[in-house]
Amino acid sequence: MLRGVLVLSVSLAAVATAAAQEKAKYPQLQAALSELSDAKAELEASKLDYGGKKEKALKAIHEAQTSLKLLLAVKGDVKGGGRARDYYKAYKDHPHARAALADLRQARRELQEAKTDFQGNRKEALKKVDHAIEQLQELLKDVK
Predict the structure, then answer these.
(1) Sequence-ordered list of residues with C-beta below 8 angstroms from that of 53, at least 6 positions apart, any chain
(2) What are the extents of the domains in the chain?
(3) What is the pTM of this model?
(4) How far is Cα 39 from Cα 54, in angstroms, rounded to an integer?
(5) What is the pLDDT of residues 30-55, one digit of tens each?
(6) Does residue 115 sit in helix, strand or coil?
(7) Which of 15, 38, 87, 127 has a 20 to 30 Å separation from 80 between CA atoms?
(8) How far apart are CA 55 and CA 15, in angstroms?
Protein backbone atom coordinates (compact mmCIF):
# COMPACT_ATOMS: atom_id res chain seq x y z
CA MET A 1 0.00 0.00 0.00
CA LEU A 2 2.75 2.43 0.98
CA ARG A 3 4.65 1.56 -2.17
CA GLY A 4 1.55 2.33 -4.28
CA VAL A 5 1.18 5.73 -2.64
CA LEU A 6 4.86 6.45 -3.22
CA VAL A 7 4.64 5.47 -6.90
CA LEU A 8 1.51 7.59 -7.31
CA SER A 9 3.22 10.58 -5.64
CA VAL A 10 6.27 10.29 -7.87
CA SER A 11 4.06 9.95 -10.96
CA LEU A 12 2.02 13.03 -10.04
CA ALA A 13 5.18 15.03 -9.41
CA ALA A 14 6.54 14.03 -12.82
CA VAL A 15 3.29 15.06 -14.53
CA ALA A 16 3.26 18.40 -12.69
CA THR A 17 6.88 19.07 -13.64
CA ALA A 18 6.23 18.22 -17.29
CA ALA A 19 3.16 20.48 -17.33
CA ALA A 20 5.12 23.36 -15.78
CA GLN A 21 7.85 22.99 -18.37
CA GLU A 22 5.38 22.91 -21.26
CA LYS A 23 5.41 26.26 -23.01
CA ALA A 24 2.26 28.33 -22.72
CA LYS A 25 0.43 28.81 -26.01
CA TYR A 26 -0.58 32.35 -25.08
CA PRO A 27 2.12 33.69 -22.74
CA GLN A 28 0.88 37.29 -22.77
CA LEU A 29 -2.62 36.23 -21.78
CA GLN A 30 -1.05 34.14 -19.01
CA ALA A 31 1.06 37.06 -17.79
CA ALA A 32 -1.90 39.44 -17.81
CA LEU A 33 -4.10 36.99 -15.92
CA SER A 34 -1.44 36.42 -13.28
CA GLU A 35 -0.69 40.12 -12.89
CA LEU A 36 -4.36 41.05 -12.70
CA SER A 37 -4.71 38.84 -9.63
CA ASP A 38 -1.82 40.62 -7.95
CA ALA A 39 -3.08 44.06 -9.02
CA LYS A 40 -6.52 43.27 -7.64
CA ALA A 41 -5.02 42.26 -4.29
CA GLU A 42 -2.83 45.39 -4.29
CA LEU A 43 -5.82 47.68 -4.90
CA GLU A 44 -8.06 45.90 -2.42
CA ALA A 45 -5.40 46.27 0.27
CA SER A 46 -4.99 49.99 -0.43
CA LYS A 47 -6.86 52.41 1.81
CA LEU A 48 -6.99 54.94 -1.02
CA ASP A 49 -10.18 55.44 -3.05
CA TYR A 50 -8.29 56.91 -6.03
CA GLY A 51 -10.79 59.71 -6.52
CA GLY A 52 -13.71 57.29 -6.66
CA LYS A 53 -12.06 55.18 -9.37
CA LYS A 54 -11.09 52.17 -7.27
CA GLU A 55 -14.37 50.25 -7.51
CA LYS A 56 -14.62 50.70 -11.28
CA ALA A 57 -11.06 49.49 -11.71
CA LEU A 58 -11.66 46.46 -9.47
CA LYS A 59 -14.79 45.56 -11.43
CA ALA A 60 -12.96 45.90 -14.76
CA ILE A 61 -10.09 43.77 -13.45
CA HIS A 62 -12.52 41.06 -12.37
CA GLU A 63 -14.27 41.07 -15.76
CA ALA A 64 -10.96 40.90 -17.64
CA GLN A 65 -9.80 38.02 -15.41
CA THR A 66 -13.00 36.11 -16.11
CA SER A 67 -12.65 36.59 -19.87
CA LEU A 68 -8.97 35.64 -19.93
CA LYS A 69 -9.63 32.52 -17.84
CA LEU A 70 -12.33 31.50 -20.29
CA LEU A 71 -10.08 31.99 -23.31
CA LEU A 72 -7.24 30.05 -21.74
CA ALA A 73 -9.57 27.26 -20.61
CA VAL A 74 -10.94 26.95 -24.15
CA LYS A 75 -7.39 26.34 -25.34
CA GLY A 76 -6.35 24.22 -22.35
CA ASP A 77 -3.67 26.77 -21.52
CA VAL A 78 -4.29 27.63 -17.86
CA LYS A 79 -0.83 27.40 -16.32
CA GLY A 80 -0.39 30.22 -13.84
CA GLY A 81 2.93 31.73 -12.93
CA GLY A 82 4.59 34.65 -11.31
CA ARG A 83 7.53 36.97 -11.53
CA ALA A 84 10.64 37.56 -9.52
CA ARG A 85 10.39 40.46 -7.09
CA ASP A 86 13.13 42.34 -8.95
CA TYR A 87 10.80 42.75 -11.93
CA TYR A 88 8.72 45.28 -10.01
CA LYS A 89 11.62 47.61 -9.22
CA ALA A 90 10.95 49.30 -12.55
CA TYR A 91 7.74 50.75 -11.09
CA LYS A 92 7.94 53.54 -8.53
CA ASP A 93 4.44 52.94 -7.16
CA HIS A 94 1.57 50.49 -7.54
CA PRO A 95 3.85 47.93 -9.16
CA HIS A 96 1.22 45.27 -9.80
CA ALA A 97 -1.34 47.68 -11.21
CA ARG A 98 1.29 49.18 -13.51
CA ALA A 99 2.59 45.75 -14.53
CA ALA A 100 -1.00 44.59 -15.14
CA LEU A 101 -1.55 47.59 -17.41
CA ALA A 102 1.56 46.74 -19.44
CA ASP A 103 0.60 43.06 -19.58
CA LEU A 104 -2.94 43.87 -20.67
CA ARG A 105 -1.60 45.90 -23.58
CA GLN A 106 0.59 42.98 -24.65
CA ALA A 107 -2.26 40.52 -24.13
CA ARG A 108 -4.45 42.69 -26.36
CA ARG A 109 -1.90 42.43 -29.16
CA GLU A 110 -1.64 38.68 -28.66
CA LEU A 111 -5.43 38.37 -28.84
CA GLN A 112 -5.62 40.43 -32.02
CA GLU A 113 -2.91 38.34 -33.66
CA ALA A 114 -4.26 34.95 -32.54
CA LYS A 115 -5.38 32.66 -35.34
CA THR A 116 -8.33 31.49 -33.26
CA ASP A 117 -11.43 33.26 -32.03
CA PHE A 118 -11.45 31.12 -28.86
CA GLN A 119 -14.81 29.56 -29.70
CA GLY A 120 -16.37 32.95 -30.32
CA ASN A 121 -15.06 34.57 -27.14
CA ARG A 122 -12.28 36.77 -28.52
CA LYS A 123 -14.40 39.83 -29.32
CA GLU A 124 -15.89 40.00 -25.81
CA ALA A 125 -12.49 39.40 -24.23
CA LEU A 126 -11.00 42.28 -26.23
CA LYS A 127 -13.77 44.55 -24.92
CA LYS A 128 -13.07 43.46 -21.34
CA VAL A 129 -9.31 43.89 -21.76
CA ASP A 130 -9.80 47.35 -23.30
CA HIS A 131 -12.10 48.34 -20.44
CA ALA A 132 -9.59 47.15 -17.84
CA ILE A 133 -6.84 49.11 -19.62
CA GLU A 134 -8.99 52.25 -19.56
CA GLN A 135 -9.90 51.86 -15.90
CA LEU A 136 -6.33 51.19 -14.78
CA GLN A 137 -5.10 54.18 -16.80
CA GLU A 138 -7.74 56.38 -15.15
CA LEU A 139 -6.90 55.09 -11.69
CA LEU A 140 -3.16 55.56 -12.12
CA LYS A 141 -3.38 58.90 -13.95
CA ASP A 142 -3.89 60.96 -10.81
CA VAL A 143 -1.65 58.97 -8.47
CA LYS A 144 1.01 61.19 -7.01
Answers:
(1) 135, 138, 139, 142
(2) 26-141
(3) 0.79
(4) 12
(5) 999 999 999 999 999 999 999 999 99
(6) coil
(7) 127
(8) 40
